[in-house]
Design goal:
Distance between the termini: 59 Å
Largest sheet: 5 strands, mixed
CATH architecture of the largest domain: 3-Layer(aba) Sandwich
Pfam family, one: LysR_substrate
Radius of gyration: 23 Å
GO molecular function, one term: DNA binding
Strand content: 15-25%
Order of helices and strands: HHHEEHEHHEHEEEHEHEHEHEEH
Structural class: alpha/beta
Keywords: DNA-binding, Transcription, Transcription regulation
InterPro entries: LysR-type_TF, LysR_HTH_N, LysR_subst-bd, WH-like_DNA-bd_sf, WH_DNA-bd_sf
Helix content: 40-55%
Protein name: DNA-binding transcriptional regulator, LysR family
Number of domains: 3
CATH superfamily of the largest domain: Periplasmic binding protein-like II
Shape: elongated
Strand order of the largest sheet: 4-3-5-12-6
């Protein structure tokens, strides 16, 4: 096998992450032919196509998937070491920071993060990766994302976390609900039809309590995201369980109201997660501090 240099590794990792020659070229600040040339060299070195084009983009082969974790980790460590001895200037950096957020995080937290980032690092780029709670441990470990914010604690080896917000679950319903006018009773809760947001969002604690208590109810609608709820709930008699912060936001902007749940669900913490490897990078430490301060300092 011939020699492989750092630029080839960087191109491989960027192409793997983006799934697109065009996007990889934009992120690397090079031309598309440069990425194609680097890919051709990599294919020759490993005697494998590495990426196969289909309608979903450039899909990695089994060889590419085997290489990715090692290449990504090596690249992160090299870049972290270089950054450690180089002065980091937020006002000049054009770095792309990547954070995994749920749709709730995008609605409630992203504006705070973006406002602070644009003020302190006007040339930096922020990429939001939709949170997949079952994948995010691996994403942090291999460096696909720099940080993740979620309500379910992540506990894989090397994952570090910082609590940002104390939260609780509430019930959201239309202000014009035909039967529930004041407090929500357990009997009413069981009698009404509900919207269930799937666990991929990372919010499953209330469902665990309902199952443990043996509470029965009818699920009329299952959806993957919370963001569509203000379009659905006001026109129906459906109930939905969601975190209080976003419920308050929805109720302030739409004809909705909030009720306490008629059973006890433990409060929980919204938490920032990152890999311990990031602590060696001046830029990533700065970004993590920015995210934490943007959110915690906005709280009353």
């Amino acid at each position: 096998m011939g020699q492989i240099d750092l630029n080839l590794i960087r191109t491989f990792v960027t192409l793997y992450d983006s799934g697109s020659v065009t996007v990889a070229a934009e992120r690397l600040f090079v031309t598309q032919p440069s990425v194609s040339y680097a890919l051709a060299r990599l294919r020759e070195l490993f005697d494998d196509p590495l990426f196969v084009r289909n309608r979903d983009g450039m899909q990695p082969t089994s060889v590419a998937r085997t290489l990715y974790a090692t290449f990504k980790d090596a690249l992160s460590r090299i870049e972290g070491t270089v950054e450690g001895i180089r002065e980091f200037d937020p006002h000049k950096t054009a770095r792309c920071f990547r954070i995994a957020l749920s749709d709730l995080g995008e609605m409630a937290l992203l504006p705070l993060i973006l406002h602070r980032l644009n003020r302190l690092a006007p040339q930096a780029e922020l990429e939001v990766v939709p949170l997949e709670i079952d994948q995010v441990n691996e994403w942090l470990s291999i460096g696909k994302v720099d940080a993740a914010i979620c309500s379910r604690p992540l506990s894989s080896t090397g994952i570090v976390r910082q609590a940002l917000i104390d939260e609780r679950y509430v019930c959201l319903l239309s202000r014009k609900h035909s039967r529930i006018k004041r407090e929500l009773t357990l009997e009413q809760f069981q009698r009404e039809s509900h919207v269930l947001v799937t666990r991929a969002s990372g919010h499953g604690m209330a469902e665990d309590v309902i199952e443990r208590l043996g509470i029965s109810r009818r699920i009329a609608l299952r959806i993957p995201h919370f963001s569509v709820l203000p379009k659905i709930i006001p026109q129906t008699d459906l109930l939905v369980i969601l975190p209080s912060q976003i419920a308050t936001l929805f109720a302030a902007e739409h004809p909705l109201r909030i009720c306490n749940l008629p059973f006890d669900v433990p409060s929980f913490k919204v938490t920032l997660h990152w890999h311990e490897r990031s602590d060696t990078s001046v830029a990533l430490r700065w970004f993590l501090e920015l995210v934490a301060e943007a959110i915690t300092q906005s709280r009353p």
